[in-house]
């Protein structure tokens, strides 16, 4: 496992490196970086790494500034003495959120979560390859979405998703059973992933065809959707998408 540590406190960085080596002897520390500027410069070289351990508050800014400039391609474990950054951490490809002072137990749980996540992705990839018939070789659409809820890694089947929406700049999916999960993807990414059984009715909502019970015409000549799943706000189809929506609804 190839890792980097982003930490501006020498003793903490050294302690973390020794803890990782003690728990996972095959760990290879590729770099120890101490600032936003240094980390951005290093990640621009597209290094081959598996996992990032990062403090949040650094001398020249927050580590979130790093990943706004260099979108992360591997999971990040945020290590900090503060708990108010948790939501933003999980929105930034965060695998785990470890409060300082960390212990062997907390780091061990994080590595277990990482291995499980990696195993899940590998298994999903293997199952997809095995299920593709020769005439379907070009179909590489994903069948599930991985979400992290607390200390759980949950695979959500795309066929079970009823809708996807934005709320306070966060993207959520809601299943047909009414369960909601925060996802680390944009609505545009979800629109591409979900496929033709889903329709983006406006800027905030993507709806599955089978989740729609019926639609009403409002005084403003918009379509108001009534769904089979409960949702706290009324969802309308934007005027410019009216005709396309009706055609899609017909299948």
TrEMBL record:
Domain Response regulatory: 2-115
HTH LytTR-type domain location: 145-251
Superkingdom assignment: Bacteria
InterPro entries: CheY-like_superfamily, LytR-like, LytTR_DNA-bd_dom, Sig_transdc_resp-reg_receiver
Record-linked SMART domains: LytTR (SM00850), REC (SM00448)
4-aspartylphosphate sites (modified residues): 55
Family annotation (PANTHER family): STAGE 0 SPORULATION PROTEIN A HOMOLOG, TRANSCRIPTIONAL REGULATOR-RELATED
The name this protein goes by in its record: LytR/AlgR family response regulator transcription factor
Organism, scientific name: Sphingobacterium bambusae
């Amino acid at each position: 496992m190839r890792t980097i540590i982003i930490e501006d406190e020498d003793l903490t960085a050294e302690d973390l490196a020794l803890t990782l080596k003690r728990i996972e002897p095959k760990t290879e520390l590729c770099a120890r970086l101490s600032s936003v500027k240094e980390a951005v410069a290093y990640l621009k070289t597209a290094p081959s790494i598996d996992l990032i351990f990062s403090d949040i508050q650094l001398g020249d800014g927050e580590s979130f500034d790093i990943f706004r400039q260099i979108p992360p391609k591997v999971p990040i474990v945020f290590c900090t003495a503060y708990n108010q950054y948790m939501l933003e951490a999980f929105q930034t490809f965060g695998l785990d959120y470890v409060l300082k002072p960390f212990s062997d137990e907390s780091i061990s749980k994080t590595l277990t979560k990482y291995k499980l996540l990696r195993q899940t992705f590998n298994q999903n990839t293997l199952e997809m390859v095995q299920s593709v018939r020769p005439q379907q070789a070009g179909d590489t659409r994903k069948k599930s979405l991985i979400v992290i809820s607390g200390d759980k890694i949950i695979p959500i089947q795309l066929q079970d998703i009823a809708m996807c929406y934005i709320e306070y700049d966060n993207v959520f999916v809601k299943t047909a059973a009414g369960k909601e999960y925060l996802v680390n993807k944009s609505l545009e990414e979800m629109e591409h992933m979900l496929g033709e059984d889903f329709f983006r009715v406006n800027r905030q909502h993507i709806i599955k065809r089978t989740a729609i019970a019926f639609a009403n015409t409002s005084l403003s000549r918009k379509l108001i959707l009534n769904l089979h799943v409960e949702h706290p706000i009324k969802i309308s189809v934007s005027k410019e998408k009216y005709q396309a929506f009706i055609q899609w609804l017909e299948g």
